[in-house]
Write a sequence for this structure.
């Protein structure tokens, strides 16, 4: 019997790459999806060096036709996946006047459109098997709107909307949809986006930083025992669920703790967001 198959988007770096390596060690065959082939090949080499199995699919998950063609190749050559990890994401923290239409389009493409396209491409296989797990990697901004992150927050709420819709639609099918939410993760994100850390509310800085490897462990555990919502670490979980129960006071506390950003620092958008792999 062949090992189960997992499709992982955003697999070229960060949480996606760490999840691919971890699932590979656990015996999953992993399909690595992202735009940059050279980065995916490096992750695949690491998985194979640990005696895992990896397949590289260098596609833009936000491009529907590319994803459909990728799904056909995967299905034909490797079979249908039992697990999808939607880890692709991009975006900067900007006020609305600082965000160009092109940039907000890219923020909506990853994570929301990428997750939608991959779920759409493989959903019939999971429904036919009456089995499968989908894990969406989300953000606290999907429940707690940080000030000064308009496009970023909107795209994460869209991803949570997809998750909630799937949970309703998949009742009784045997297919599970899960939303895992992490706080700050150690990655080059803050180096590549100067000023973001300074604009974080002080309240958010109380949450411990997680490594991509720790996030991957939580994702692997969720794949074994699917849950509708997983939030880590504990401090964030308390804040997240408090925001669900009493959103008004939490919004007030976050606004109160926000490091003041003076008007002269807020500039109209002039350029596109740096592309991500």
């Amino acid at each position: 019997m062949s090992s189960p198959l997992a499709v992982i988007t955003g697999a070229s770096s960060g949480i996606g790459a760490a999840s691919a390596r971890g699932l590979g060690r656990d015996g999953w065959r992993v399909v690595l999806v992202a735009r940059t082939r050279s980065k995916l090949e490096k992750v695949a080499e690491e998985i194979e060096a640990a005696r895992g199995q990896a397949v590289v699919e260098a596609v833009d998950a936000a491009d529907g036709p590319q994803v459909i063609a990728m799904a056909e190749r995967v299905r034909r050559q490797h079979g249908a996946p039992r697990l999808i990890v939607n880890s692709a994401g991009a975006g900067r923290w900007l006020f609305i006047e600082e965000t160009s239409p092109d940039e907000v389009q890219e923020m909506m493409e990853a994570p929301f459109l990428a997750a939608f396209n991959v779920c759409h491409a493989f959903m019939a296989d999971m429904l036919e098997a009456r089995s499968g797990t989908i894990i969406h990697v989300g953000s606290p901004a999907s429940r707690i709107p940080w000030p000064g992150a308009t496009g970023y927050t909107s795209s994460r709420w869209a991803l949570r909307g997809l998750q909630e819709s799937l949970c309703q639609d998949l009742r009784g099918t045997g297919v599970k949809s899960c939303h895992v939410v992490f706080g700050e993760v150690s990655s080059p994100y803050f180096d590549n986006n100067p000023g973001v850390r300074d604009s974080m509310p002080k309240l958010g800085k109380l949450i411990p930083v997680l490594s991509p490897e720790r996030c991957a462990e939580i994702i692997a555990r969720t794949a074994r025992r699917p849950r509708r919502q997983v939030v880590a670490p504990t401090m964030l979980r308390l804040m997240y669920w408090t925001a669900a129960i009493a959103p008004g006071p939490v919004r007030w506390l976050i606004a109160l703790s926000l490091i003041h950003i003076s008007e002269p620092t807020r500039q109209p958008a002039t350029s596109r967001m740096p592309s991500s792999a």
